[in-house]
C-alpha cells in the first residue's frame, strides 16, 4: 500500500479510467465506486478485480493462470538481439531521451526490467496479469514497482508514458488489436514504444502448431497436475537436451540449463493457452492504422530469420 500514492497520478480504474483514491486498505474508483484490493503489497487492478463478474474459463483468464503458476523464464542474450545494440550503443540514445515514466506491460521474470536498469539506468513500472510476475520484479536486485492489470484494459491514464514496453506479450493475448490500442493510448505524444512479437518466418511457428495441441491434450485428459508429470517424463527430456544444444550453438553457453527454468520455457513455448505469429508487414500496417512512425525494426533471437520482430514506434506530437 505504501507504494501506491507515488503512482496515483497515472493509475486509473480499469473499468472506466476514472481516478482512484485510497480508502482504508483498498483503492476506490471515484466514478465507478468499485473497490480494488491488494495481493500482498500489490494493487489488484485487473478489470474483474473490483466486481463479482469472473469468467474462469475465458481465454484471458487461462493466460493469467498459466503465467501466474509458471512465469516465463527467458534465456535472452542481448548479444543475440537488436535490443542489445539499442540499449548499449550511444547511437540509439535518442530512443531513451525521454524516460521519466516508463511502463512495461507484461513483465515475465523481469528480463527486460533488468536489461533497462543495467544498461540505461531506467527501472520500468510493471503491469502484469500474473501476481508471480509482479513479485519477481519487486525482488532484489530489480526492486521495481508494479500492479496487477490487463493489457486489454490497462489501469493507466491516457498519454502518460514516455516509453511503453510490450516484449513478448501481445502474441499471447486473445485480442491483440485491442491490446495495441491500449498501448498507444497510454503513450504520450512524442513517446516511444518498444514492441516485440513472434516472427511468422521461424521454425518455432511450425513446432508450436505441430506440438502444442497434443501436449495440451495430455493435460486435458489427465488433468493439469498428472498431465504435467506425464510430459516431464516423456516429451520434456528431449526438449531439455535440445535447449542445451541451442544455447550452446547460438549463445556459446554449453553449461547444462537448470530443470525448473527450462520447464518454464517449455511451458511458454508449447503449453501457453494462445500464441500468434506476425509477418513483418503487419507491423507496418499497425503503424499506418494508428499514425505511428517506425524508428527501428529488426528480427533477432534465432540463427535463421529471427525468432521475434523487434520494433520501436513513435507516437507523433499533436
Automatic annotation (TrEMBL):
UniProt GO MF annotations: S-adenosylmethionine-dependent methyltransferase activity
Keyword Methyltransferase found: yes
Domain of life: Bacteria
Biological-process GO terms, alphabetical: methylation
Methyltransferase type domain: residues covered: 104-194
Pfam families on file: Methyltransf_11
Keywords (A to Z) from UniProt: Methyltransferase, Transferase
InterPro entries the record matches: Methyltransf_11, SAM-dependent_MTases_sf
Protein's recorded name: Class I SAM-dependent methyltransferase
Species for this entry: Bradyrhizobium niftali
Amino acid at each position: 500500500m505504501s507504494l501506491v500514492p507515488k503512482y496515483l497520478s497515472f493509475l486509473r480504474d480499469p473499468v472506466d479510467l476514472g481516478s482512484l483514491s485510497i480508502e482504508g486498505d483498498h483503492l476506490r474508483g471515484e466514478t465507478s465506486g468499485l473497490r480494488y484490493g491488494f495481493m500482498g503489497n500489490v494493487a489488484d487492478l485487473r478489470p474483474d478485480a473490483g466486481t463479482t463478474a469472473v469468467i474462469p474459463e475465458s481465454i484471458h483468464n487461462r493466460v493469467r493462470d498459466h503465467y501466474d503458476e509458471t512465469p516465463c523464464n527467458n534465456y535472452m542474450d542481448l548479444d543475440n538481439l537488436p535490443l542489445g545494440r539499442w540499449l548499449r550503443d550511444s547511437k540509439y540514445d535518442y530512443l531513451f531521451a525521454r524516460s521519466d515514466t516508463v511502463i512495461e506491460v507484461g513483465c515475465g521474470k523481469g528480463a527486460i526490467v533488468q536489461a533497462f536498469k543495467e544498461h540505461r539506468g531506467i527501472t520500468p513500472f510493471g503491469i502484469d496479469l500474473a501476481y508471480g510476475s509482479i513479485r519477481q520484479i519487486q525482488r532484489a536486485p530489480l526492486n521495481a514497482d508494479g500492479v496487477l492489470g490487463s493489457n486489454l484494459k490497462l489501469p493507466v491514464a491516457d498519454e502518460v508514458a514516455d516509453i511503453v514496453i510490450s516484449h513478448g506479450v501481445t502474441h499471447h493475448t486473445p485480442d491483440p488489436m485491442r491490446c495495441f490500442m491500449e498501448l498507444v493510448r497510454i503513450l504520450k505524444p512524442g513517446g516511444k514504444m518498444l514492441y516485440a512479437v513472434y516472427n511468422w518466418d521461424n521454425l518455432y511457428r511450425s513446432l508450436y502448431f505441430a506440438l502444442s495441441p497434443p501436449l495440451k491434450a495430455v493435460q486435458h485428459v489427465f488433468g493439469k497436475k498428472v498431465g504435467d508429470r506425464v510430459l516431464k517424463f516423456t516429451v520434456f527430456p528431449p526438449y531439455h537436451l535440445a535447449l542445451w544444444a541451442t544455447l550452446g550453438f547460438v549463445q556459446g553457453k554449453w553449461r547444462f540449463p537448470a530443470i525448473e527454468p527450462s520447464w518454464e520455457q517449455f511451458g511458454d513455448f508449447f503449453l501457453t493457452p494462445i500464441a500468434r505469429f506476425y509477418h513483418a508487414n503487419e507491423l507496418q500496417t499497425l503503424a499506418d492504422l494508428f499514425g505511428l512512425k517506425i524508428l527501428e525494426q529488426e528480427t533477432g533471437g534465432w540463427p535463421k530469420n529471427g525468432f521475434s520482430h523487434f520494433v520501436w514506434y513513435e507516437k507523433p506530437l499533436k
